[in-house]
Write a structure and sequence with these properties.
alpha/beta, 419 residues, 11 helices, single chain, 21 strands
Length: 419
Amino acid sequence: MTISMIRKIEIVLLEFLLCFFSVACTDNSNDWNDNEGVLSFVIRTADAEYHAVIDNDKKEINMGGLQKASSIKSVEVTLSDGYSIEPDPTEIKEWNKTQDFILRKGNSVISYKCNLPDLINLVRDYVVFGYITAPGTQQFDNIFPTINMDNLTHVLISSGKVAKDGSVDFSSLNLDNTNAIFNAARTAGKKVLLSISKAANSEFGQAMDSPETRTKAVNGILTYVRERGYDGFDIDFEDYDYITNHNDNLMEFIKELHSKKEDLLMSCAVIYGGKKYGKEWAKYFDYINLMSYDAASNNTFEQFKAHIKELGEELGLGEDYSKMTGGVPFYGRDDSKPGNSPYDKTVSYAGVLRDYGLEAADADTWNQTHYNGRPTIRKKCQYAKEMGLGGMMIWQLLQDTDIEGYKLLDVIGEEMLEQ
């Protein structure tokens, strides 16, 4: 075979290979008509319907206005004949601001992006805040060893107390009990915060009146928390008239705490009912624990729902409730007890079961005692998730029962942490 013949054969083979690869690598998406693909994309909530703007040229599905992922009730998608979509939008459980889809037609595959720019993602890693008092009492000795820390994410030890001169008194914290709580929580991998409240009526508020006493309180709190290795602190400011009438001074205290706290967690306990915390309040806290109890009948489910809405509006949270935790009581009120104050009528959930038997665990009222039984606690947890709250809060852990199978904390752990 001559050299010229070999060269001719090489040229023919090269042309054949070039032709083969040209056909093989052709983007068969060119067979798609840009006017086909996704024809409509609709998301429905309980009270609204959102229609996407479809751009089949850019392969985008754009939908504005939808904010709360938890409110999505149904999805309806219309495709051109011969098309299928993956994943199935009707089966998506967790929506993101950008959701990827694949459209198929025959052997061709095209990628689409669904853009939901206003969406606030559901909180999936819920928190459970449990307050616990640390005095030296028989109640502590009996109940504390039975608390399952796996049902909590944060333990809040109550409490340091702010006096009117700005000093912070920690003497009410029984050292042995505080250490036991701290060590048990840390061993279980939980965050531990120190709760800060008032020394006596109006004293916390009076400490807010001057820059000097505010700074003294800030420094006292932060020094104690850092020296003892806490993960953060919680502000339980219950001089409510002061919030309503002198909130500017209180906000200066909150801002100073925030500016000096560095990497410490900063939470607060707040009440419902228009105390005028203001729209600035929420941005300075990692979590806002709603004390949704102490209402008539010690907070029914309907009252719980109303309190969440009230506080959300007052703080200007819009659709993002992820900083809020819904508070539930581990105690009730016995109206047959003497006394004018509701605190005179307090009875623990453990006391309810002791007085009325285990069947009282699934009720909310027994004789003249009003409380939250297991079904209501579960229902509140489910509603908190539905509303996109960050989690739940408990006052307080030592009031739960030690009877296995009847603990309120176990119900919360099951619902919020899937324990």
